[in-house]
Specification:
This protein is mainly alpha-helical. It folds into 2 domains: about 150 residues, Ribonuclease iii, N-terminal Endonuclease Domain, Chain A (Orthogonal Bundle), CATH 1.10.1520.10; about 80 residues, Double Stranded RNA Binding Domain (2-Layer Sandwich), CATH 3.30.160.20. It has 10 helices and 3 strands; from the N terminus they run αααααααααβββα. A 3-stranded antiparallel sheet has the order 1-2-3. Strand 2 and strand 3 form a beta hairpin.
């Protein structure tokens, strides 16, 4: 492990027992087949649970729908990108030559995904309590208040709230395909609502963008059905 990753562990307040997890977490798919996307998938769920717990404690008076909206604002790409920059991830992210030349080191989606991958790596290395503590430290300086519920909803949040209001399960998202070179990929994402027996697809330049596009398509389909 090089000095930059050793310094990153100090900033994370966690020394990895399995250093290969950290190395994989900062490895983009353009660099190696042993990349961080599976860790990102895991870290996304750990992050959402840890933030939900944080909000449950801090905003005890807010109802479920408002808590979901605040959480969506906290775990969105812009916030995670800023936290990743503060952690110094641009200096340690491992990119293929093409991705590096095209500015991938500063790309918000890559850095946000790497942060989630690191959270997933910490979870695998030391368990949920340690990963939760990391998330709480990361969000110490992030403003969290009930007014965040007034911020405009994105498609994923709007779809989630629509389903929750009708006591339906959350939608399922899955990447069904990727197109293009590693440094210029687009993600084909499917969104499925099991109770309604509907699935829609969306395309984006990142997994997150693909999920938003799929959620937007799902909302359009639902609204068209309910208006007839």
């Amino acid at each position: 492990m090089n000095e930059a990753l050793t310094a990153l562990q100090a900033r994370l307040h966690h020394e990895f027992a399995h250093s290969s997890l950290l190395i994989r977490a900062v490895t983009h798919r353009s660099f190696s087949l042993d990349h961080n996307e599976r860790l990102e998938f895991l870290g996304d769920s750990v992050l959402n649970l840890a933030v939900a717990d944080l909000l449950f404690q801090r905003l005890s008076a807010l109802p479920e729908g408002d808590l979901s909206r605040v959480r969506a604002n906290l775990v969105k790409q812009d916030t995670l990108h800023r936290l990743a920059v503060e952690l110094g991830l641009p200096d340690v992210i491992r990119l293929g030559e093409g991705e590096a030349r095209s500015g991938g080191q500063k790309r918000p989606s890559i850095l946000a995904d790497a942060l989630e991958a690191i959270i997933g790596a910490v979870y695998l290395d030391a368990g949920f309590a340690v990963a939760q503590s990391l998330v709480h430290r990361l969000f110490q300086a992030v403003e969290i208040n009930p007014d965040m519920q007034a911020i405009g909803k994105d498609a994923k949040t709007e779809l989630q709230e629509w389903l929750q209001a009708r006591k339906m399960s959350l939608p399922l998202y899955r990447v069904v395909g990727t197109l293009g070179a590693a440094h210029k990929q687009t993600f084909d994402v499917e969104c499925e609502v099991i109770e309604l027996n509907i699935s829609e697809r969306g395309i984006g330049t990142s997994r997150r963008a693909g999920e938003q596009a799929a959620a937007s398509a799902m909302l359009q389909t639902i609204k068209a059905r309910t208006s007839t």
